[in-house]
Amino acid sequence: MDMKEQVVTAFEQGYGSRPRFIVRGPGRVNLIGEHTDYNDGFVMPMAIDRAVWLALRPRTDSLVTLTSLDMGETASFSLDDIQHNQSTWIEYVKGVAWALQAKGYSLSGWEGVMAGDVPIGAGLSSSAAVEMAAARAFLAVSDQSWEPAAMARVGQQAENQWLGVNSGIMDQMISAAGQAGHALLIDCRSLETEAVPLPPQTVVVILDTSTRRGLVDSAYNERRAQCDAAAAYFHVSALRDVNMAQFQAQADGLDEVTRRRAYHVISENERVLAAKEAMQDEDAVRLGQLMNESHTSLRDDFAVSSPALNTIVDIAQGQPGCFGARMTGAGFGGCAVALVREDAAAIFVTAVTTAYQQATNLTPNLYICQATAGAELFRPAVERPG
Known about the structure:
This protein is of the alpha+beta class. The chain has eleven helices and twelve strands.
């Protein structure tokens, strides 16, 4: 039984009727462009075929009641009086409701069932998947239109101000606006997007190290503050506005750590734009080289990798049929991503799994991924995305 069937079946068992709406919020993997989003830079993520699914129906009052099959819990809150409680899964849904209301949306209550197969804490953005699924649910029951960029902003506001995670816009934007078969070049300043095709005869493989990030929020916020300090040094609003020639001419006045952080961001923005050209040229070899260079920069200059990530990336890069591999996500654990020749993918998965187990005594989880559409709304009577 797939995720969609699971939530529909659970809804029917719990409420005795078919759901009025089904929504899907995908996770994502970022091919290249890490820690550039909050510097107004460029990123190249794709929405993946792992997602959060929600089956729901409207209520006639302002109550939201949601059962999480993954957590084995049901939680409720009133749209008339949204209170911040302990940091549990329902806070992501509350945060979206709060941010929508803050932007002037008039919301209605609903009841539903949620389940997902985006690994939590792996750097595949399970939180954005929940946020975009919740946003689609609120707009569906309130009969309001879906605008991907606006909803990405809502999700980011929920993440930043309700949940206290100082994240950029990338995760919510790709979960809202992804396109099947494509990665999405996102300009994190303008939110302009450009769909970029994956190279032919290649697949993207996610390499979950089975390690989870530790004190990532404090390290993340520290990196963000270092980037802000570097931008102030260059007298610009964000490191997006500094090119490599300017950096090399003026960076001597920065302390070594801040200089290395800035160098990563500036060089990573260049790599993302080069990756777009490589993909448009169907050049998998060049794209893989850029992914490898990105990992080196994240490991050495931005210092957000980990022993497990470095091990799995090194193993992946050494496999036949692998064009390139890098850590993905905020870092310190979680996942890496590899670009692999399609006809070599099955052998690649087996070889990396075996070698990583031998090196670390950990069992990784590897997923061959498809690039999917962003958050979708289904009406069960019709069963067509809308």
